[in-house]
Specification:
Blueprint: E1 2-9, E2 16-23, H1 28-35, H2 51-60, H3 74-83, H4 92-110, E3 115-117, E4 124-126, E5 130-134, H5 143-147, E6 153-157, H6 161-166, E7 170-172, E8 178-180, H7 188-194, H8 210-223
Antiparallel strand pairs: 1-2, 3-4, 5-6, 7-8
Amino acid sequence: MTFGKQIRMVTHGNIYFLDELTEQDIPYSKFNSVVGYQPNFTIQGFNILDESKSKLLLDAFDLRSSNYFPDIREEEYIEAVSTLKDAESLDSVVTSKGRTEQQFLRKILFRNKSISNCCICGKNLPISLLWASHIKKRSMCTLDEKKDFKNIAVPMCRLGCDELFEKKFISVNHEGLIVVSAKIDAYPELKAFINDLNRKKCLAWNNANKIYFAWHYDSFLSIK
């Protein structure tokens, strides 16, 4: 089976352009089970799944795009963050609401870009390698802070910056400069990897989001 993650329909109703094509080896038995077909059902010809079946399939086989952002309204985002609890589980409702939240934040940060900068290391990367990272730990945010979607999240790369920030090996001080924890002295290879970040300007730090960076920095200092 071949799936395209991004579909655009043009003026001719039966013409589709598919992007991000990936080959998938999915047995009919698993496919049928996920979308609710009979176990012995065999797909014949061109078949378009409805929205609910499409969501089930995308979630089950991790087929969602990292580059295409669905149109999520602000009201949907607010409803999602209002529903999610601090003690999150892996049930389908929480997973769906969490995905809505992340997709909305990614759309705010990246719009229609295909590449963007990590605010920590500054590397210009495909957006599939960037997270919409919460500055203040998400579980510690008030609902009002979660609703502050223009300022609560910044782009950090999956190459390491997001994890280093999350684990408080690095932070951003009150002048917007990246600070490296002294605890990296115990890890020479890690120290060599991140020393160049020390005292660099965080590209995303500004007057609107500095209160969230300040929370992270104060927490960073308490364990530094």
